[in-house]
Design brief:
Elements lengths: L7 E6 L16 H18 L3 E6 L29 E5 L15 H7 L4 E7 L1 H14 L3 E10 L3 E2 L5 E2 L1 H12 L5 E3 L1 H5 L1
Parallel strand pairs: 1-2, 1-4, 2-3, 4-5, 5-8
Antiparallel strand pairs: 6-7
Length: about 190
C-alpha cells in the first residue's frame, strides 16, 4: 500500500448497521464502497498495517435511536470481513476522540503505536470522515483520505437545493486536498 515510509493505520469509521435505519439511507453506492473498503482492509492485513474500527453511538433516553448503545445496531455491516486490531466508540464527529472499552482514545493508541499516517475510510464522507481528517491533520498526522472508500447520501440545503452524494464527495475532496490530506482513490492507495 502506498504509505510512503511512515508507519500507517487504516481507520474504518462508522461502517455500522445504524445507518440502514436512517431515513436518508440509500444503498446505491454501497456495493462499490464496501468493495473498496474491503480491498483496503485486505491489503492492510497483508502488509501488517493496523485496521482500526470506530463506531458512533448516541447515548440518551431514546433507546429507539439506531445509534443508541442498546439499539443492537452499533455493529459492523456484515458485508465486511474486518477483524479489527482495536475498536473505538465515539459520541462526537472526530474518530480521534473515540475510546476503547478500556478508555484508551484513538489518538493515544495511534501515538503509542508510532503511527504517523492514517488512511481514512467510512461513513459519512462530509461528517465524521472529514472531521476526523481535519482533526488528525491539525494535531500532526499525515492523512490519506480515500474518497471512494467513504460513503454519504444526498442532502438538501436550507434554500432547497439538492446535492447528490457525488457532489458532496467532490466538495469534501476540494476543501481537504492539500490542506488537511492527500486525496486518493482506493486504486491509488493500493498501488
Amino acid at each position: 500500500m502506498k504509505t510512503a515510509t511512515r508507519k500507517s493505520a487504516l481507520l474504518v469509521i462508522d461502517v455500522q448497521e445504524s445507518f440502514r435505519r436512517r431515513p436518508y439511507w440509500q444503498a446505491d453506492d454501497l456495493p462499490a464502497f464496501l468493495a473498496n473498503t474491503q480491498a483496503l482492509i485486505n491489503r492492510s492485513r497483508a502488509e501488517g498495517i493496523p485496521v482500526l474500527q470506530v463506531f458512533h453511538q448516541e447515548p440518551g433516553p431514546d433507546a429507539h435511536n439506531p445509534f443508541h448503545p442498546q439499539s443492537g445496531l452499533i455493529r459492523a455491516m456484515p458485508e465486511l470481513d474486518l477483524q479489527a486490531d482495536a475498536v473505538f466508540y465515539k459520541e462526537v464527529h472526530s474518530a480521534l476522540y473515540g475510546k476503547t472499552t478500556d478508555g484508551v482514545t484513538l489518538e493515544k493508541w495511534l501515538r503509542s503505536h508510532g503511527v504517523e499516517e492514517i488512511l481514512v475510510t467510512g461513513i459519512r464522507t462530509e461528517q465524521c470522515c472529514e472531521t476526523t481528517t481535519r482533526h488528525a491533520s491539525d494535531i500532526g498526522f499525515n492523512v490519506q483520505f480515500v474518497a471512494d472508500a467513504t460513503l454519504t447520501f444526498p442532502m438538501q440545503s436550507r434554500n432547497g437545493r439538492r446535492f447528490s452524494a457525488a457532489e458532496i464527495r467532490e466538495r469534501t475532496e476540494l476543501v481537504l486536498d492539500g490542506r488537511f490530506a492527500r486525496i486518493v482513490s482506493t486504486a491509488e492507495a493500493l498501488a
